[in-house]
Design brief:
180 residues; alpha/beta; Rossmann fold; 10 strands; 21% helix; binds inosinic acid; binds magnesium ion
Amino acid sequence: MKETIRIKDKLFRLLVPKKEIDQAVERVAREISLDYEGKEPLFLCILNGSFIFAADLLRKITVPCTVSFVKCSSYSGTRSTQYVRNLIGLNEDLVNRDVIIVEDIIDTGLTVSNLLKDIRKKDPASLRIAAFSFKKEAFMADFKIDYLCMEVPDRFIVGYGLDYDGFGRNLGEIYQLATE
Ligand code: IMP
Ligand code: MG
């Protein structure tokens, strides 16, 4: 496990080691499995960033469940554009389903806010949010995160699905931007 890595022009330092990530995902999977006992939740994962978290989380869920994906994007480089693009639509039938949104990181909260609006129109039985990480200081929305692995500082991070200009998603650990 490297302490420092370089992606393109930027230097990143280790923030969360793999073991800590695994333990947090395990805990959240347990919480969800307990809460959804007797139900068949549908995990709606936001691409691209949540694919690693979703894959780890879902393999630890012990209730029967289904999975689908939506694609949104609000970031360009290391900055939020405050504008969310819906790249793959919501074409799943959500009527009477217990939906759990799966997101890699909640920053301003704009991406999930937009998705919540769209999903509510589709009459799900219930709707909750599972996020791997949360930048509390950057949050501007008003929804509650039902299942959270960890809070992170309000600095750009990469790894475990999160990217810098497309790179770094494959890192097993979370790294934080060292220089700006
Ligand atoms: P929000 O709409 O501001 O909550 O941003 C959420 C999306 O921005 C996430 O799904 C990520 O794709 C991206 N994002 C936010 N913060 C970071 C970061 O520190 N590194 C990489 N991507 C991020
Ligand atoms: Mg994302």
